[in-house]
């Protein structure tokens, strides 16, 4: 099969590789849609030791099952493979499984390829009215769905204001998840002018540049979908006393949190990693039910042009929140 292979910092090679061989309980999938994630970009830049070259990246995938009990079905893929038997897994916190693996991270190859093998339990059937491009968004949106669910558990019910830092797919997915879970007073902060315009025009979001946020304005829940020192500092400053910060982004490892203010004002900080299997399915169902909007905020490119797509993202030439590659 053909695949887009990460071979070193800022280098991707579209070439022939061996077809995957499904193991017990796994299905072979013909990949039809696969999104470029921020973590793929980190790997591409050589910033992720968990993704050493050579490696097939990509974990936001949807396609058609070619083998096994689900043969012929269109599916979206939960890329997080867990053991199913440890204390985390049996308590529905399988995203914290000690032996978890995610495709696009060694030793599991990713989905920037024609074929992919995955456990059947990781596959979610796609209804006829949803395209594979739309269904591939389940993975990035599920990250926001999981974070919002955890934040809402701290806040409880009631009218709440939300601030989302970052207008990429993770931030937009969090904003859509906030709305779907009952919070509709949402402001997104996004520094990229073209993306701000895109989110306002195509996604019906309230989007501001970082400098336009009033220094005194505070929010019940702040979602950091970026994870840089500057965004953590912004989250610390704008969380209301008694509020909650949910942190998804992995931009930088440390810095930015105002621990003194968070302590004195009893601000809860929750680090969030991916999603549970239940979260992934609940998020996908919300998408299928139309609760996440039209899901048309993607740019489609062929997989053999994937290297150029990474270059364009790196150079800031992409305004849509997500590029979907088509093998």
CATH architectural type of the largest domain: Alpha-Beta Complex
Q: In terms of quaternary structure, what is this?
A: single chain
Shape category: globular
Query: What series of H and E elements makes up the topology?
Result: EEEHEEEEHEEEHHEHEHEEHEHEHEHE
The N- to C-terminal Cα distance equals 10 Å
Q: What is the domain tally?
A: 2
User: What is the CATH T-level topology of the largest domain?
Assistant: Quinone Oxidoreductase, Chain A, domain 1
| Uncertain spans | none
Please tally the helical runs, counting DSSP H or I stretches of 4 or more residues.
Answer: 10
Major sheet details: 7 strands, mixed
The CATH homologous superfamily of the largest domain is named Medium-chain alcohol dehydrogenases, catalytic domain
**Content-based structural category:** alpha/beta
Structural Rg: 19 Å
Helical residue percent band:
25-40%
What does this 3D model show about the protein?
- The chain has 327 residues and is of the alpha/beta class.
- The chain has two domains: 168 residues, Medium-chain alcohol dehydrogenases, catalytic domain (Quinone Oxidoreductase, Chain A, domain 1), CATH 3.90.180; 132 residues, Rossmann fold (3-Layer(aba) Sandwich).
- Strands 3, 5, 6, 9, 10, 17 and 18 form a seven-stranded mixed β-sheet that branches.
- Helix 10 links the parallel strand 17 and strand 18.
- Helix 4 packs across helix 5.
Question: What's this, in brief?
Answer:
The chain is 28% helix and 27% strand. The radius of gyration is 19 Å and the shape is globular. Strand 17, helix 10 (306-314) and strand 18 form a beta-alpha-beta unit.
């Amino acid at each position: 099969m053909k695949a887009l292979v990460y071979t070193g910092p800022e280098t991707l090679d579209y070439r022939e590789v061996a077809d995957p061989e499904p193991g017990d309980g796994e299905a072979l999938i013909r990949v039809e849609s696969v999104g470029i994630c921020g973590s793929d970009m980190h790997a591409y830049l050589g910033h992720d030791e968990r993704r050493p070259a050579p490696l097939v990246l990509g974990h936001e995938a949807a396609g058609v099952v070619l083998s096994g009990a689900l043969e012929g079905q269109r599916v979206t893929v939960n890329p997080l493979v867990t053991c199913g038997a440890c204390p985390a897994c049996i308590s529905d916190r399988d995203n914290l499984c000690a032996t978890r693996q995610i495709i696009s991270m060694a030793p599991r190859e990713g989905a920037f390829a024609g074929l992919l093998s995955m456990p059947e339990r990781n596959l979610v059937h796609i209804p006829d009215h949803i395209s594979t491009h739309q269904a591939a968004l389940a993975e990035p949106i599920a990250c926001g769905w999981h974070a919002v669910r955890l934040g809402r558990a701290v806040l409880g019910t009631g009218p709440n204001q939300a601030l989302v830092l970052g207008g990429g797919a993770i931030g937009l997915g969090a904003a859509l998840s906030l709305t779907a879970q009952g919070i509709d007073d949402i402001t997104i902060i996004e520094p990229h002018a073209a993306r701000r315009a895109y989110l306002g025009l195509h996604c019906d979001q309230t989007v501001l540049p970082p400098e336009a946020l009033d220094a005194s304005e505070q929010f019940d829940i702040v979602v950091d979908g970026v994870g840089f020192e500057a965004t953590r500092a912004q989250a610390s400053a704008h969380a209301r006393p008694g509020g909650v910060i949910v942190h998804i982004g992995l931009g930088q490892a440390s810095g930015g949190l105002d621990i003194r203010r968070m302590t004195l004002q009893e601000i809860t900080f929750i680090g969030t990693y991916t999603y549970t299997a239940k979260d992934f399915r609940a998020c996908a169902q919300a998408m299928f039910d139309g609760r996440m909007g039209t899901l048309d905020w993607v740019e489609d490119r062929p997989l053999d042009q994937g290297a150029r797509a990474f270059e364009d993202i790196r150079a800031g030439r992409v305004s849509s929140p997500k590029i979907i590659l088509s093998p």
